[in-house]
Amino acid sequence: MTLVDKIGAGTALVIFLLLSYAYFYAFRPKNKKKFKNMENFVNRED
């Protein structure tokens, strides 16, 4: 593997870990109800 390959693999791994953390943070039970209430935020008619 060249240096560029290692940098790319490291960057991909970091992005994957950050996205995984964000997903599990957003959908933990404490926040799940809050996000469920906001599910139709765009389509809601006032």
- The geometry reads as elongated
The whole-number mean of residue pLDDT values reads: 83
Q: How much strand content do the residues show?
A: under 5%
SSE string, helices as H and strands as E: HH
Distance between the amino and carboxyl termini: 57 Å
Low-confidence stretches: none
Helix fraction, binned, reads over 70%
Tally of extended strands?
Answer: 0
Number of helices: 2
* Main sheet: strands, sense, barrel: none
* Structural class computed from helices and strand pairing: mainly alpha
Rounded to the nearest angstrom, the radius of gyration is 17 Å
Folded structure, characterized:
The protein is mainly alpha-helical. 72% of the residues lie in helices and 0% in strands. The chain has two helices and no strands. The longest helix is centred in the N-terminal third of the chain and has 24 residues. The radius of gyration is 17 Å and the shape is elongated.
